[in-house]
What does this fold into?
Amino acid sequence: MMMSAKLRGQFSYFTESLYQICVKTPLEQGRPLAFTIIANPVAGGFTIPRRWTKHRIMIQAAAERAAQNAERSIPARPSRTAIAEGGEWGGRGVIFTGKVGDANIFAGRMALEITEDAQKSDGPFHLLVVAGGDGTSLEALREFVRLPDEARRRLAVVRLPLGTGNDGSDEWELDAALERLLGPVNVEFKPAVKLVTATAGKGPFFAFNILSVGLDAFVTHMTNRMKHKFPGDSYKLWIDIASLLYDRFYKVDHINLEVYDKAGAVIKTLWEKFLLIAMGISGHRTYGAHKPILPDDRNICAIKQMSLIRKIAFKEYSVTGIHVSCPETFMYTASRLIINSVRPILAQTDGEAILLEPRDFPITLELTAPLIPVLLPAK
It folds into this structure.
């Protein structure tokens, strides 16, 4: 990886500090611990100067606190994957990605290591730290949905909010996320949202925060296409543009929506011209840099088509979460959706856009069993 002296110093500081934090974490004290840190060096938390200045202060404070923690009775060490794939940083447990897809590749190799270690009675517990935005998190986590249960019980994940969009991170602020590596924690398994299409070999697709179809997926698609021309948080720009352009690219037609509860019973069947349909792994979820699309306990939001003038006003409602009270909005708590459309439509999984063709329908969105072991502060 070619980089300036300034960036090299920045990444060296991050690497050494995270190493010092991980070797002193109290997680799984009394047993071997192997850690892997997958970091995206072009994430906004590194490259936007004001954010890095803020993050460096938080990282320094966390490293200083870690130094005060007791020594582990059995030392923590970088994983074999980190050492093999991290280059000059691997000995400290850090792997920097170089291109889109790298986080998925490295997580896949880590998954193999965990599966091998799970077959040994004295094999280590594994800690995965993902440092980046929603795209890096998605790439890394989807590799673990196929882990055997025994291997899954040997893993815990912490997602550090170092991107321009951090809705899937465990905390919105870096210092709070780092706290999960410093103090008492519990491991809680979280579900994913799975999208299954009617087309053989297409999917399944997974999201670990929110999976949706429609207008917001178009915003995601355009943001991803234009991010190199509009660096920074261009999502907000494309929300405004999409209100004007979406209907020209994707005609909003009637969609059949079936909503099911945990027991498999139909809650509601709707036939509407939907602008978007969103399903989260739970309620109280955001996307698009903390837009509260699911602001309460309900994990389903479906919004009908509306006039352009109404869309402009509605955009402001969705920023504050009061859209849930608007007549165009349907909110539910559900475990499965079946969606049928006769027209192409975009879907997005934690910020990654997918084009769904008519032959892909009906599609199913469903909550999986709890899959991803996430570190939570001990209560």
Remarks:
- The chain is about 30% helix and 30% strand.
- The longest helix spans residues 49-68.
- The two ends are 42 Å apart (CA to CA).
- The chain has a mean pLDDT of 91.
